[in-house]
Amino acid sequence: MRISTEDLSHHLSKGLGSLYVIHGEALLLAIEAADAIRAAAREAGYSEREVLIAEQGFKWAELCNSAQSMSLFSSRKVIDLRIPSGKPGVEGAQALQEHCEALDPDTLTLISLPRLDGTAMKSKWFTALEQHGTVIGADEVLLAALPAWIAARMKRQGQSADADTLSFLAQRVEGNLLAAFQEIQKLALLFPVGPLSFDQVKDSVMDVARYDVFKLSEAMLAGDAERYVRILEGLRAEGTATVLILWAVAEDIRTLAKVSRAVQQNGNLSGALRDARVWGIRQKLVERAVRRFTPFFAERALRQAAQIDKLVKGLRQGDVWDELLQLGVRCARAGTR
């Protein structure tokens, strides 16, 4: 069974299972989910806890030994197994599958994993965990959903804010959920319960957003020029290599060129996206962007990217950051004027 971190509280209120698996890149949500499961286990009488960390050299027999041994002072225990790499290896994969086949109702197993790729999600060991336990995805909160997430957190401490203030706050903490949580807690310390004004939040919250080149390209595809500029400034302040930024932006422009040409030729957008290997969360972004892009515009953007590449390599003179700004903003605003 798969559930989200938001569903976990309701799930635990209906009773505990024997196996829980937490995976994902949102560290704050993963920590909170594990804490909630351990608290529910303590309340249910699982008074003994054994922590196993499956790093290099870990003996997987310890998992079996732990499951089979019980303390003289407790009849119920928690096995807290952490696999930092997300890759248990051949021996670990076999041990996890065997563990699933021998789950004991008096032993609760909590397994913590990082973000897993598609291969790991389809592996036999992960499939076994999913079939015998509850899998909780601790996924990063996307910018579009961040205002609602912040509002829910503020509500827990008796505070609220209007939509513009929540949007402002979301932009300042984007990509850094742990810092977002700390900033929201700071508001509880600074102000009493009740609605907060924009000025109160603006004067209190630091810009703790954490950006990456993929978010920059995502803003360009979404047609959000303002966000593109903000992220580019953040990447420049963090000292991100311009060659990496150009690569990410040019890759998506190249994809748009390929998809727009195919659509122009045969009108089959789904087939064009499949041929360009566009799927998942990027699919909707590219679908929207390709409606704004013409093949001609995409080719011009690629030529501009080629000129920036020469700039990065020192083959021509100019301001590479300014050129990246112009390219991204031009692409973000394509088809809107």
Keywords:
alpha/beta, Helicase, Ruva Protein, domain 3, single chain, 6-stranded parallel beta sheet, Rossmann fold, Zinc Finger, Delta Prime, domain 3, DNA binding, 60% helix, 17 helices
Provide the β-strand percentage band: 5-15%
The largest sheet, given as strand count, sense and whether it forms a barrel, is: 6 strands, parallel
The CATH topology of the largest domain turns out to be Rossmann fold
- CATH architecture type of the largest domain: 3-Layer(aba) Sandwich
Helix content: 55-70%
Strand order of the largest sheet: 1-6-2-5-4-3
SSE run = EHEHEHEHEHHEHEHHEHHHHHHHH
Total count of helical runs of at least 4 residues:
17
How would you state the average pLDDT, rounded? 90
Domain DNA polymerase III delta N-terminal: 20-136
Family: Belongs to the DNA polymerase HolA subunit family.
InterPro entries: DNA_pol3_clamp-load_cplx_C (IPR008921), DNA_pol3_delta-like_C (IPR048466), DNA_pol3_delta_N (IPR010372), DNA_polIII_delta (IPR005790), P-loop_NTPase (IPR027417)
Domain DNA polymerase III delta subunit-like C-terminal: 212-314
